[in-house]
Amino acid sequence: MIKIGSWADRPQTLWGHSRRGVITAATLKRLGMSSKTIYRKCLPGQTWQRLLPGVVLLHNGTPSQDEKVTAALTYAGPDALLTGAEACRRHGLRTGALPDVSQLHVLVPHQHKIKSAEFVTVERTIRIPPLQLREGFRLAPLVRATTDAARRLRSIEPVERLLVEALQQGRCPPGDIGYELDHGTQRGTAIARRVLAGLVTVRSMAEVRAKALVSELEMPPSHWNVPIWLPGGRYVGCPDAWWDDVALAWEIDSFEFHFERSGYARTLKRNSRYAAAGVTVVQTLPSRLERDPAGVLAELAGALRAASARPRPAVSLRQQVA
To answer: What is the DSSP string of 193-249?
Structure first.
């Protein structure tokens, strides 16, 4: 316990009781500081600032996004989870595919009587999802964060960008997104449902043709649409088809399937991740599945022979975080 008055000579002690410089007024009072002093230190031009009711930032500069998220979770309580667009970004979705929103969206258990305030939207829910930690931040799982973000959008284009990004990252299967839309609040889900149905139809047509084609191979794929990881938990990709014994990936994509030309840049990055991990990858245009099935089979057979002839790289179907 800090003695009354001694905090001014020991600023590092206050930081030690904060999180990223964010601290509650209640904590400051427990450390021996008066309400009057706290109020005075947060006035314009003074050394601190009030971010949210009862939440103080121990400097007077522009708050960083990390500080604002910390303040939001501090304000909403120890059971709160960050969801929506900001949680999607922290899960690794591209910022350019996410809606530009200034409000932070947090979930709290339904019995908690906490109200939205300033830059924080608080949603009370009986469906609190399991906690996921990313760099010390309490996040809702990516599927829940994606659907929560989509529910607050009012036009098709941003919803499509968001869902395409989540699907192509490989960590949000269409069925999981659909389950969240069906079992969560129905408010704001109409556009997301319509967009998801269209995307699933396009993907399913290509996948059905692909599965029928590779059934003719001597060694068919062992898995479909599974994420691949490096040791240490680093994400590699989520191939349409995967031969686990030889670490061969088959990707059926192009401008035809990416829905937008910016998908080409993501394809290059993804293929670079495959190459760095030592994974052999075959990339096929969806149109070739009908136009040149024999050529596609020949390419896959050749890739299987080449992959079988080299040492299998250390990639896994399970994320193993060090």
So the answer is: HHHHHHHHHHHHHHHHHHHHHHTTSSS--SEES--EE-TBS-EEE--SEEETTTTEE
Q: How far is CA 140 from CA 81, 129, 161, in A?
A: 6, 6, 20
- What is the percent of the chain with per-residue pLDDT over 90, rounded to a whole number? 53
Per-chain mean pLDDT for the chain: 87
**Token pair of 2, please?**
């800090």
What is the CA 209 to chain-centroid distance, rounded?
30
| Tokens found for residue 253 | 């994509």
- How far is residue 58's CA from residue 51's CA, in Å, rounded to a whole number? 10
Q: For the CA atoms of 76, 79, 84, 90, what is the dihedral angle to 10 degrees?
A: 110
Q: Taking the CB of residue 8, how many other CB atoms lie within 10 A of it?
A: 10
What are the angstrom distances between the C-alpha of 286 and each of 138, 153, 199, 207, 239?
A: 39, 31, 14, 9, 14
Which of helix, strand or coil describes residue 74?
helix
Question: In the numeric block, which tokens belong to residue 228?
Answer: 């691949």
DSSP codes of every residue in 1-18: -PPTTGGGG-HHHHHHTS
Check: CB of residue 162 under 8 Å from CB of residue 146.
Answer: yes
Q: pLDDT tens, 240-281?
A: 899 999 999 999 875 444 444 445 667 778 889 999 999 999
Residues of the chain above pLDDT 70, percent: 89
Task: Burial-class residue 200 by CB neighbours within 10 Å (0-12, 13-18, 19+).
Answer: middle
In whole angstroms, give the CA distance from residue 162 to residue 177. 12
Distance between CA atoms of residues 95 and 269, nearest Å: 15
pTM of the model: 0.65
pLDDT in tens, 114-157: 999 999 999 999 999 999 999 999 999 999 999 999 999 988 88
Work out the number of other CB atoms within 10 angstroms of the CB of residue 222.
Answer: 14
